[in-house]
Amino acid sequence: MTFYFKLQFLRLKRLLAESGLPPAIGMILLVIGFVVGSMYLFYKVDFASWAYLAIALFAVAQAGNKSRTDQLLLLFPRKMYWNIRIRENLFIALPFALFLVAQVHYLTAAGLLALALSLAIVPFPNLLRFTFPTPFKWIPFELPAGFRKSWWIFAVAVFLLVKGIQVNNFGLSLAALVLSQLAMMSFYALPEMIYYVWIYARRPGPFLFHKIRLAWLGLSLITVPLGLVVIFSFPEQLAVSAAILILGYLFVATMILAKYSAFPREMSVPQALLFGLSVWFPPMLLIMLPVFYQQAVRQLNAILP
Amino acid sequence: MIRLHEISKAYGNHQVLDGINLDLSPGHVYGIVGENGAGKTTLFRCIAGLEPCQGTIQAPTQPLKDHTGFLPTNPEYLSRITGWEYLKLMSIARDLREDDFAAQNVFDLPLDQYAQTYSTGMKKKLALMGILLQKNDLFILDEPFNGVDIHSNMIIQDLIRKLRSLKKIILISSHIFATLQESCDSIHLLQAGKIAKSVLPEDFGVLEEQMKTFVVGDRINRIRLG
User: Fold this and answer.
1) How far is B30 from chain A (nearest CA, A)?
2) What is the pLDDT of residue A126?
3) Cβ–Cβ contact A131 with B under 8 A
4) Which of A112, A164, A237, A301 could form a disulfide with A173 if both were Cys (CB 3.0 to 4.6 A apart)?
5) Number of domains observed in the structure of chain B
6) B50·A198 Cβ contact <8 A
7) DSSP per residue, chain A
8) Per the domain annotation, does B88 fall within a domain?
9) What pLDDT does residue A276 have?
10) What share of chain A is helix, strand, coil (3-state, %, to 5)?
C-alpha cells in the first residue's frame, strides 16, 4: 500500500515536471494557490463555507469514479482496497477541512471529513450508464461533453442569477454570467487525442476558426440569455454587462488558441500564466490573441499539413 | 495509385521501418502481417500522416490524410460523447452533412449511449462506421477483426469486398491469418522494418506455413506447463 501512495506522489511530480516546473516549486505554488484561492472565496462569496464544502466534495468524488475503483479492486485485496480508498478521500478532504477549521467552521469541517469517509465506503453510482441530455448534440464534441460534465455549474449560475435579481444585487447577477462563461471556457482547457484533430480535412487556420465558431455558437446559446436577463434587470449597468458578455467571446477564443498553441501537450505553466494575465487584464488580449494564434498554427501544421 | 517510396522511421537508435516500398492500386486489398513490434502500426501511422517519417508518399489527391480513414487497433473515445455524436463529429470533420446514422447502423450499435461505455468490439465497430461514413479513398484498418464477434466479422468481410468494388484502397493488418486469406489481393510480411516477402493469393498457404515454422517452431516447449 505504501508503494501505491509513493507511486501517486511520483505521478504528481512527473505531472509537474511535464508542465515545465521543477516539482518542488510546483508543489509550493500548488499550496500557495490553494490557500490564496480559498481565502479569496471566503472574502468574496456569501455562504462561502457551503460553496467550499461543495468544491471539496467534488474533488473527493473524482477519486471515486467507477473505472478507477474497478482498477483498484482488481489490483488489491478487499481489505487493502478499503484502506486505500479511505486514506485517499481523507487525504483530498484534509486541506479543505483544515482551512474550514482556520475559518472557525468546525461543524462544516467535521461534516466534510465524515462525507469523505462515507464516499469511500459507499460505492459511487456509475452515472455513465445514463446519457445526460444536451442542447449541443448537433455540434460535437467539446460542447455536448462539456455540458454533460458541467451542467450543475449552469444550474448554480441560474440560481445565483435569480437570487441576485431577488435581492437586487447586480454583482451577484454578474457573477452568475461570469460563472457560466468560465464553465464554457473549461470545455476547452485540456487537449484532446491527436486523432480527433487529425480527422479534420482542414488546414490549421480554418480548423481554429471552425472551433472558435462552434464555441461562440454554444456560448451564445448559454450566456446570451443569462446576459440579457442581467441587462433587463439592471439596465443602468448596461455598459458593464455588455462588456462582460463580449469579453466572454474573446476569452473563449483565447482559450481555444492557447490550448492548441501547446497541442498535443497541455498548456505549459508560462502559457497558462500568460492566458491568466490576459483574463485578468483584457487589453493584453490584443497581444496574446495573435501570439497564441501563430503558436497554434505552428503546432497544428504537423497534424494538419 | 498510392506509391510508398523508401519509408523509414526510427525512434532514437531503434529503426522501426527501414526503406518500405509499396504500390497501392485502387480496388485492391493489401494485407500486412508481422510479429508484434514488427512495425505494422508505425507504417500505418506514417501513411496516415499521424507520424512523421522519411521517404515519400505519392498520392493522386493531396494531402492524403484528407481522404484516409484510419481504424486504430484500440479506438479511444472522448468522454461523455454518444455513438451518434461521434459519427456526427467524424462527418463534420470532413464537411459532410450526414446525420442519418440510425438507418446506416449496420452493426446495430446503441448510438444513444456513451461510446466510452461500449465493449471492445463495439468500440471497434463504431470507429469503423465513422471512417466508412467519411467516404474515404484509402482505408487503413489496424486489426479490424480483433475483439469483434463472429457475425460482425462476416459483415466486415462483406464491407471490405464492397469497398474493393468501389475502387477504394484497403490496407489491413491482422493476426488472424484466415481473415486476410479471405479478403486480400496480396499479403506482405513485415520483418525487422522491411517488407521481407510479398505473396499473391495462390501462395497464401505457403506463407502461412512458413510463418508457423519460423514464428512458432518448438518455442511452446520452453514453458514448463503442468
Assistant:
1) 22
2) 65
3) yes
4) A164
5) 1
6) yes
7) -HHHHHHHHHHHHHHHHHTTS-HHHHHHHHHHHHHHHHHHHHHH-TTHHHHHHHHHHHHHHHTT-HHHHHHHHHHS-HHHHHHHHHHHHHHHHHHHHHHHHHTT-HHHHHHHHHHHHHHHHSPPP-GGGS----TTTTSTTHHHHHHHHHHHHHHHHHHHHHHHHHTT-HHHHHHHHHHHHHHHHHTTSS---THHHHT--S-HHHHHHHHHHHHHHHHHHHHHHHHHHHHHH-GGGHHHHHHHHHHHHHHHHHHHHHHHHSTTSPPPHHHHHHHHHHHHSGGGHHHHHHHHHHHHHHHHHTT--
8) no
9) 86
10) 80, 0, 20
Kindly report, residue by residue over B36-56, the tens digit of the pLDDT.
Answer: 888 999 999 999 999 999 999
pLDDT at A67 over 80: no
- Is residue B89 within 8 Å of A141, Cβ to Cβ? yes
Classify residue B100: in a domain, yes or no. Answer: no
Q: B199 - beta bridge partners?
A: B187
> What is the model's pLDDT at position A46?
67
pLDDT digits (tens, 9 = 90+) for B187-220: 999 988 999 999 999 999 888 888 877 777 777 7
Contacts of A195 in chain B (CB under 8 A): 50, 70, 72, 76
- Over range B70-96, report the average pLDDT: 94
User: Whole domain around residue B183: which residue ranges?
Assistant: 2-75+139-222
Which residues in chain A are closer than 8 Å to B114, comparing Cβ atoms? 128, 131
Q: Please, which pLDDT band fits residue A123 given cuts at 50, 70 and 90?
A: low
Cell 474573446 appears where? A250
Which residues in chain A are closer than 8 Å to B65, comparing Cβ atoms? 198, 201, 305
Residues of A in contact with B81 (CB under 8 A): 140-141, 144-145
> What is the Cα–Cα distance from A195 to A190, expressed in whole angstroms?
15
> For chain B, which residues lie within 8 Å of any Cβ of chain A, measuring from their own Cβ?
48-50, 52, 63, 65-66, 70, 72, 76, 78-82, 84-86, 88-90, 92-95, 99, 112-114, 116-117, 134
pLDDT tens per residue, range A190-232: 999 999 999 999 999 999 999 999 999 999 999 999 999 999 9
Q: What DSSP character marks residue B97?
A: -
Could you give the CA distance from residue B139 to residue A250 in angstroms, rounded to a whole number? 39
Select from A196, A197, A203 the residue whose CB has the most chain B CBs within 10 Å, as the one to mutate to test that interface.
Answer: A196
